[in-house]
Structures are given as C-alpha cells and as structure tokens.
Write a structure and sequence with these properties.
Elements (H helix, E strand, L loop, with lengths): L2 H15 L3 H7 L2 H16 L6 H28 L4 H12 L5 H16 L3 H9 L11 H48 L11 H10 L1 H14 L3 H11 L9 H11 L3 E2 L2 E2 L4 E2 L3 E2 L8 H27 L1
Antiparallel strand pairs: 1-4, 2-3
C-alpha cells in the first residue's frame, strides 16, 4: 500500500477539517494518548534515587517502549486494511491526526491578528500557546520573531518530518515519528529530572529530523522570491543554531523574508544568549508574520505536489 497516497489523503483531510473540537472531546488525540504513556513511564522509571547512568538506561527503555508501541499498533492496523483505494482512504483517515498543517497556520495567524491592531498583550497571550519563552518580556518584534521561528521549526517537526517518514514507511512511520517527537517535547529537556532520562529521546529526535529539517529549508527557499538569500543564510547561519536541526528552516525563513531571527531570549528560569540568524537584517513585525504564513502556504503546496508525484510513481 502506498505510503505517499495515505499521506496525501491525510494532508487533504487536515487542510479541510483540522482536528475538530467535537472529535477531540469524544476521543482525544493520538498525541495525547502517546503523552499519557510517556508520563506513566516517566513516573515509573525515572526514579529520584537512581544515579545518572541508571536514569539514562531507564530513559532508553522508556523511549524504545513508546516507539515500539506506536509503530506496532500502526503496523497492526495497516495489516487489517483492505487493498486498493478503500485501504488508502482508511489509512489516510488513520494518518490524519499525525499531520498538523491547518492548526499550525491557525496558531500563528492568531498571533498576527492582535499584533496588527496594536494589541500587544493579546499577541503575547497568543504566542505563549506556541513557544516556551516568557511572553511578558517580548516587545512587538520579539513576539513576531517568536511566532515566525515557531512556524519555521514546527513546519519541519509537525509536517515535513511526519510526511517524510510516512511516505517511506506508511502509517507505522508516521506513528513512530510522532512518538519520537512527543518523547522529545515531554522529556527531552536539559532539566535536573530529564537531562539523563530524556537523553535517548532527544538524540533519537535529532537523528530522525536531520533530513526533514534540511528539506524544509530547501522548500522555503524554493518557493520564495529570494531563493539565493534563503540558501545563503542557511549555509551561513544554520550551523550556529542551538539545535542541530531547527536552524535550517529558521535560517531559510529569515533569508527568504529579509529579517533576523533567534538571538537572545528569556525563558521562565533563564536567559539564553543565542546568536542571531541573518544578523544585520531588520527585526520582524506583524506584516512579516503574514508574509511568513504566505511562504508557508506555498511551501506546503509544493510539499503536497511532491507527495502526489511520489504516489503516482
């Protein structure tokens, strides 16, 4: 069964419907199910009295359990799907919640709307839904920068990466990737509790996002009106980012829009002195969020066309 065809159906469903609130109320969401399993394993295996090596080993076990459960369940469901277009349609329905194309656009647009009318508090509240930094310390350009960075990074993590692994491995690839990404978001942090326990989750997430992050940057560059600048900024600044992967789509976005991103940022418990991406360019504003969303839409159309081509091959 074509993984590309299943992913294409999932993309169409997500653009048309998102993940409806009534459906979330009725059954939740597969990511919340994965999250519940991770939280349970964190409570069971991440023991306060364990040393660093013990916590790291327990974290490896937890990561493997979560990934295997997600992949095996998806593989079992795939096994029972009928052949032909009926199976592809049902597979696409099952893959649908693993691709967050519409919600990504909605969350970032929700930041632009209040910022455009001068409602900085409303924009800060909206951006707090998608970033971890302290929104109370952000001025207009800081809010716009946070929104655009989140759009660029999460286009890779939330859309391109699951599409990439879904095209290659079908529904099991999608489910396994989403399990890995959720593991990283929940326990892959350098905190006293999770630095050792979440080590494996963070490293696995880095590996599975290596190719998708770079593909995302190339997509942004390819559909922009400034492809040379986007590619040049990627080549120059992506490797300076704190993340081995997030710098690629962020640098491409910064170069494509002619703005600077990243830089020093304030979190609840610390100040991160990060280098600028595309230093020397202008700070972004509300209009640049809209431009970034336009670039995102063109990139996602290009991605869907690539997936459709793969489905026909």
């Amino acid at each position: 069964m074509s993984g590309a065809a299943i992913v294409l159906v999932a993309l169409v469903l997500d653009v048309a419907l998102g993940w409806p609130k009534w459906l979330y109320v009725a059954i939740g969401h597969p990511v919340t199910w994965i999250g519940a399993l991770i939280a349970r394993l964190d409570a069971w295996l991440n023991l306060d009295e364990a040393d660093e090596r013990g916590r790291r080993n327990s974290g490896i076990v937890a990561a493997l359990v979560v990934i295997m459960v997600a992949a095996n369940l998806a593989w079992t469901l795939t096994w029972f799907l009928p052949s032909g277009w009926t199976g592809i349609l049902l597979g696409g329905i099952l893959a649908w919640p693993f691709i967050a194309l519409r919600s990504m656009h909605e969350h970032v647009a929700a930041v632009a709307k209040p910022l455009e009318v001068g409602d900085l508090d409303g924009a800060r509240h909206a951006v707090s839904m998608i970033v971890g930094r302290d929104p109370a310390r952000l001025d207009e350009s800081g809010v716009a920068r946070a929104a655009i960075e989140s759009l660029a990074e999460n286009t890779s993590d939330g859309i391109v990466a699951p599409v990439f692994w879904g095209v290659i491995f079908g529904l099991p690839g999608l489910a396994a990737y989403k399990a890995i990404n959720t593991l990283d978001s929940m326990i892959g942090h350098r905190t006293p509790r999770h630095e050792a326990f979440g080590w494996a989750s963070a490293r696995i997430d880095d590996v599975v996002n290596l190719i998708p992050a770079r593909l995302t940057g190339l997509l942004f560059a390819a559909v922009s009106t400034r492809p040379k600048e986007a590619l040049a900024t990627m080549g120059r600044d992506a490797g300076h980012h704190r993340s081995p992967n997030a710098g690629w789509p962020e640098a491409a976005m910064a170069g494509a829009l002619g703005i600077r991103l990243s830089g020093p940022r304030v979190y609840a418990d610390r100040v991160a002195d990060e280098p600028w991406v595309n230093a020397g360019a202008a700070d972004p504003g509300a209009a640049d969020i809209r431009r970034a969303l336009g670039l995102y839409r063109f990139a996602m159309l290009a991605l869907a066309a690539i997936v459709a081509l793969c489905a026909l091959i």
